[in-house]
Design a protein that fits this description.
alpha/beta, Rossmann fold, OB fold (Dihydrolipoamide Acetyltransferase, E2P), seven-stranded mixed sheet, six-stranded parallel sheet, 15 helices, about 35% helix, globular, binds iron/sulfur cluster, EC 2.8.4.3, tRNA-2-methylthio-N(6)-dimethylallyladenosine synthase
Length: about 500
């Protein structure tokens, strides 16, 4: 009788980068012969996997408490089953290194953000030597996208175009943990996009800490716009998105490429962080509010339907009431569809952590509430302006919690707004990955309702290769639940957390 294969469980914290890195960790483990714990029928699986991997985040507040809390919960399992292996990777591992095995000696492997490809070998070595393995590299060993990947969605995929960041925003830990920007060659990116499309993927998100400085490493300032245009030539690729661009590096050729490439979607997530030029300077963000507003104006001029979203930090050290009023002014003028709003809190290891004039919590809270109230009002007005439009929705799993009860299906419109669509009785039901067109009947503050079909309006379903791919995936043993694309949620901001954002966080 052959032994059952060892199981793995990858637990992810943090940003899109980590979600995508976790897809690679799963791919690496599967290539090494492990199977996903979630794919083992419930009655046949143990209470933990044979290998538990934490892909950690150092950006969020209390990230270390959360990690050590999670590790503490696994300790009794490890005592009962010494063969259980626990690995910690991601930004906390890069930051804390040996401290992790000092504080949690039952951890077997610690690996950094630059060497995720070493995980299977480190697990083997730890098992063989019966000794914890800590391996952290200072720079990238292999561009992560060349590693095997187990993708979580059949119809949407991520493609990394760069990793790391050459900026030095004073609130951000990312440059210290992810290193200098490394750009992947365009040919390699396009080959991956084509391979995804051949598997049924309709929607690709180009991912980088700072996508529009892409090309800096090989000396082509226009490389990102060219890449968008090249994606336009990939047959079968229906939706191209990207995250996150930096306003300082946002050039007009990118706006032109967005406007002229039909499969590049009319949505833009561009972090503002603050509307005050003085605060932007202290944040070491090298654009000013006038430049930011100028980009928005040109995007709206060339792409009138574009939905623009942003990230904003409230209460950065030294922020005065006048500075905050500047943020409100820029928010009013920008008319974002939605914004991720963050209360500044100290991130150890960042320059801002030791700045004088940290703002008292009560002041930050009060400003934050004013900002959220203003943005909610704008989001609602912008969504009400969508009423009567016909939208094309890429149906997705996990986007509509009440869909069963309301007989709707949910997904994202071209501009990335969340839409819940009523399915009329007896009508064809789309599969996740299919497209449905429907009329918007109500713009709620954080989503759209498209119930037009119930009163004789548009309702048409287009079966796609994405839907076919989803259906094929259902025939396989149950895997992990699909993740949503992870794009900024227009109209449905993430639950507010007192964390400073980083690009892509
Ligand atoms: S906030 Fe974004 S651009 Fe600034 S340092 Fe962090 S990753 Fe780079």
């Amino acid at each position: 009788m052959t032994a059952a294969p060892k199981t793995y469980d990858v637990r992810t914290h943090g940003c899109q980068m980590n979600v995508h890195d976790s897809e690679r960790l799963a791919g690496l483990l599967e290539t090494a012969g492990y199977v996903d714990l979630a794919s083992v029928p419930e009655g046949e699986r143990g209470d933990t996997a044979d290998v538990v991997v934490f892909n950690t985040c150092a950006v969020r507040e209390n990230a270390d408490n959360k990690l050590y809390g999670n590790l503490g919960q696994l300790r009794p399992h490890k005592q009962r089953n010494p063969d259980l292996q626990i690995a910690v990777g991601g930004c906390m591992a890069q930051k804390d290194r040996d401290t992790i095995v000092q504080r949690a000696p039952w951890v077997d492997v610690v690996f950094g953000t630059h060497n995720i490809g070493s995980l299977p070998a480190l697990l083997d070595r730890a098992r063989h030597n019966r000794e914890a393995q800590v391996e952290i590299l200072e720079s990238l060993e292999t561009f992560p996208s060349t590693l095997p990947t187990r993708r979580d969605s059949a119809y949407s995929g991520w493609t990394s175009i760069s990793v790391g960041c050459n900026n030095t925003c004073t609130f951000c830990i990312v440059p210290a943990l992810r290193g200098k920007e490394k750009d992947r060659r365009p040919g390699e990116i396009l080959a991956e996009v084509e391979a995804l499309v051949a598997q049924g993927v309709l929607e690709v998100t180009l991912l980088g800490q700072n996508v529009n400085s892409y090309g800096v490493e090989f000396g082509d300032r226009l490389a990102f716009g060219k890449l968008l245009r090249a994606c336009g030539d990939v047959k079968g690729l229906e939706r191209v998105r990207f995250t996150s661009p930096h306003p300082a590096a946002f050039t007009d050729d990118v706006i032109e490429a967005m406007a002229q490439t039909p499969n590049v979607m009319p949505s833009l997530h561009m972090p503002l962080q603050s509307g005050s030029d003085r605060v932007l300077k202290d944040m070491r963000r090298s654009y000013r509010s006038a430049k930011f507003l100028g980009i928005i104006e040109r995007v709206r001029d060339r792409i009138p339907d574009a939905a623009i979203t942003t990230d904003i930090i409230v209460g950065f050290p030294g922020e005065t009431e006048a500075d905050f009023e500047e943020t409100l002014r820029v928010v009013r003028e920008s008319r974002f569809s939605s914004a991720f709003t963050f209360q500044y809190s100290i991130r150890p290891g960042t320059p801002a952590a030791t700045m004088a004039d940290q703002i008292p919590k009560a002041v930050v809270q009060e400003r934050f509430e004013r900002l959220v109230a203003l943005q909610d009002e704008i989001s609602w007005q912008e969504n009400r302006a969508q009423e009567g439009r016909t939208v094309e929705v890429l149906v997705a799993t996990g986007e509509g919690r009440k869909d069963g009860a309301t007989d709707r299906i949910s997904g994202r419109a071209r501009d990335n707004r969340l839409v819940h669509v009523a399915v009329p009785e007896g009508a064809q039901r789309p599969r996740p990955g299919d497209m449905v067109s429907a009329d918007v009947t109500y713009g709620a503050p954080h989503h759209l309702l498209a119930d037009g079909a119930l009163s004789g309006g548009t309702y048409s379903v287009r079966r796609t290769a994405g839907g076919d791919a989803w259906e094929r995936a259902q025939a396989q043993p149950a895997g992990k639940p699909s993740v949503s694309l992870g794009m900024p949620r227009i109209g449905a901001p993430a639950p507010v957390t007192p964390a400073a954002p980083a690009c892509g966080a």
